[in-house]
Every structure is written in C-alpha cells, then in structure tokens.
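Example record

One chain of 428 residues, shown exactly as stored in the release files.
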Amino acid sequence: MKEIKKKYLEELFIEYAKVNTRSDAIKKQSIPTTPGQRVLAQRIIAKLKQIGVDDAYYNESSGFAIGYLASNSSNKDITGIGFIAHLDTADYPAENVCPKVHANYTGKPLILNSSKNIILDPEEFPELKKLVGQTLITSDGTTLLGTDDKAGIVAILGALKYFKENPEIEHGDIYVGFGPDEEIGLGGKRFCVADFNVEFAYTLDNGQVGELQYETFNASQATIEIEGTAVHPGNAYKTLVNAILIARDILNKLPKDEVPEKTKDRAGFILVTKADLQIDRATLQLIIRDFDQAKFKQKEELIKKIVAQCNAKLDRPRIKVIFEQQYENIANTITKHPYIVNLALVAYKRLGLTPKIVPFRGGTDGNFITQKGIPTPNLFNGGGNYHGRYEYVTSEQLLLTANTVTTIVKEHVRQTKCGRDERALEIS
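Predicted structure tokens for this chain:
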C-alpha cells in the first residue's frame, strides 16, 4: 500500500503558498475578488486531473474548484462526504511570499528576517515548543505564509492521491471544494449545493492538531447612521446638531467588558469596526457575536435600545440602525446530526490524537454551507499564528491532516456496515 508522502505535501504547500490569493472586500462584486484566487483554482484543477480525478471543474458562478472521486464500493448505503478548504488568505501582505523550511526544528527562536529583526520566538508563541524535531515552514517575516488555508488544500489533495493510488481501499463518493473569498465572508454564500451530492461535509480551516469545532458564533453587523446639522459655529446656538457627539454618546453606552479583548471561550462581544465622523453626519459599524442565540439577540436589542434612548434626547429622530445577518451558529444544525462529529472523533482516536472540541470564535464557509442543507463542522489544518507574519505549519502536521481525511472516509465505510455512532453531542 502506498502511503501519503510528507515531502509531496510539503512541496505542494510551498508551491501554493507562493501564489498571492489575498482577497479584497472592496471588490465584492467580482468572483473571485482577486485574480490570484482563480490562478490557484485552475492549478488545483490541473493537480486533481494529474492525480486521476477526472471529474474536476471550475464553477464560474461560485468561484469554487470542484473535484469528485466516485465510490469504488458496491455498498449503496455509503453516503457521500465532502471536504472543503478556501483559496484566499487574510487581509495581510501576501505578495512575494517566500517560504522558509527549517528541518528538525530545535525549539529555539528563529530569525525570519535579520534586516528587520523579525524573530519567531517560542517564548512569545509557546505552541512552537511542541514541534521540536519537526520540519517547520514559515514565511520570511515580511508576509503571511498562507497556512490558513493552503494547509487544508494540500491535505485534501494528498488524501485524494492516496485513494487513487490504493484502489483496493474501499470508499464512498468523495467531493472536494476549494473556494474563494472565505476571509471576507463571501465564499460559502456563493457555494453551489448542486456541486456536492453529499450527506455532510467538513471544512479544514484553522485549528491546532486534534481540534474539532462544531460551534461558531451567531453573527450580524449593525450600521448606525446619524444625521446632524452643520452651521457656522458663530451662529450655532440652538441650531447646530453635532453628529460626532451623538456617536460618542452611543459608543459610551455600549458594554465596556463585552469586547473581543476582554472575552474568550463562549463569551460573545460587540466590536466597533468603523467610525466615519463629521458634524452633519456620522456612521458607526459594529459586529455582534455570540454562541448563545438568546444572548446574541439581547445584544442586538441593546443596540436598538441605545439608539432609541439617544433619539429621545434629540429634536427629532436622527439615528437609525440597520442590521445585516451574517451567519448563525452551526451547532443549531449539527447537534441534530451527531454522527458527523462522532465520526471525526473516532478517526482522531484511531490516529492517536487527543480530541479537543473547542468553540470556533468566528465563522467558516461551513456556516453558510450548513444553512444550505449540508451540515459542515470544522476539522483542523495544523499550524498556528494565522493571518500574520508569524504564521507557520510543519510538514508533519500537513501529513497528519491528510491522514485524518483518509481515516474519516474509511471509518465512514466501516460504520455504515457496522452501525453509526449517533450519541448526542454536548454543548457546554
């Protein structure tokens, strides 16, 4: 039996890391928002065909590269599984990414860029101490690396290569999707369900080895628009209405401790993301996040109450708030389908991993895909320090992620024959 080669994954990751796939929220009408994402999608399609996945194509309407490996089993009860990773990287410099390979990492500080004195220090990032002896891949400190989510991409490709090279290993239908613009919340929104004839799917997006996430935030954005009245300050008595001061009043009424820098685990927050302030008009943008649906709604109601209170003090209603629902906690759906999570946990244990179920303090493509009818929790892609110059992954983590995908597929076959683990999930 041919095993997945660590070197293969390492080289593929480095190749893809060098492609600038930074998404651009300003170009929301474009699919994808940046040309590098299309370039990488086409490369992946070519790689799928090279591996032997003949049914591989690019969906122009969604920007997803899609691959389909047909079942080799006579058992028609084995339902299809999907695996999804995203093409784009976060809003951080991504031009001329120069991956650096550090074989047999010693656990000591690494100089990423001597001229700029950029150092990857395990004292600052203690997780690095667990990677001694592994082959560490970093950027040169001037860009991000792209672990999020090119590690997920190459792990999925490695798993497909494994099944094509070992046709004697039984598997059901496997669908894979590589989508654009996840970092700006567009990829999953545009995902075409018709591309995936599956019972469920997994994203491989972020997460330390052994993590599993089936809880995400409920999320919305609030835009508060304030109308002021600007006149010459020398003639402003009982006429000028300063929208800047009204905005300040609103901000002062927000809870001081329910902010990202003071919350963790399952605690939600309200974050002011933008303030455009002038005397005659002001706009505030806030994002609202909470795992608990009731607490999430309470936060939205609080904002409405603050707006009403501030309006009551003015000569007329000058403030309006508009809410845009972004996504909901996938646990609302996935807890009704416990097998999906239990399946992954069994696979983890078969690989000797200690499962760690953690809430995902954000969202993935899985939020939108779950709402479209395909329950999609998140596995891990290894690595760490996502979205910045200190991002890293190891070759060993890439291999373990790929092996996790293959093990889930094989375990799905086994449980289809022997009985599914449908034990209820627990939400803390």
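Notes: The mean pLDDT is 97.
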